[in-house]
Amino acid sequence: MNKKGMMVILSAPSGCGKDTVFHEISSIRNDVCESVSATTRQPREGEVDGINYFFISTEQFEEMIEKNEFLEYASYNNCYYGTPAKYASDMVESGKICFLIIERKGAQKVMKNCPDAVSIFLMPPSMKTLEKRLIKRNTETEEQILNRLKIAEEEIKSSAIFNYVVVNNELDKAVEEINEILNKELEKRNA
Description:
The protein is of the alpha/beta class. It is globular and about 45 Å long. It has seven helices and nine strands, in the order βαβββαββαβαβααβα. It starts with 5 loop residues before the first strand and ends with a helix. The strands form two sheets. The chain has a five-stranded parallel beta sheet with strand order 2-7-1-8-9, sandwiched between helices. Helices cover about 45% and strands about 20% of the residues.
């Protein structure tokens, strides 16, 4: 029997370590991949089409919307961003655990469109810790950080809609907990 993979939604407030956790998971497992999003924004220096994003025109994106080819999409800063359904489903069919690292609203859309997806919400240990992490990144103004914290509070309120909530207090423990979730879910699906 050919083992099937699964789709995993990983969502968290900004600064909670989604990308770091995924990087650590992918370093200990060879069956994970990250879904590649499509966008209409221009590539930044060093970004590669098909690896960082699928860079497409607004017309192409809107055509894909009309054909219902996205698991979720949104418009942000006059550009479209979305998760192409075919890429993610191809990865799952090939036996991969395909991670969708997306914000809460997109996660909710994917949960609705793909009820068999495993959803994980990565929680900060506290709002104070989250604030320290955002300040430490040194990429935003104080006003932007306060805005991110306000958004984080809203996102945390909706964490109950996810299958699992993992607190990212210690990276190793959070990675271990998510790895156990993946093993448990795969076992259920391939029993």
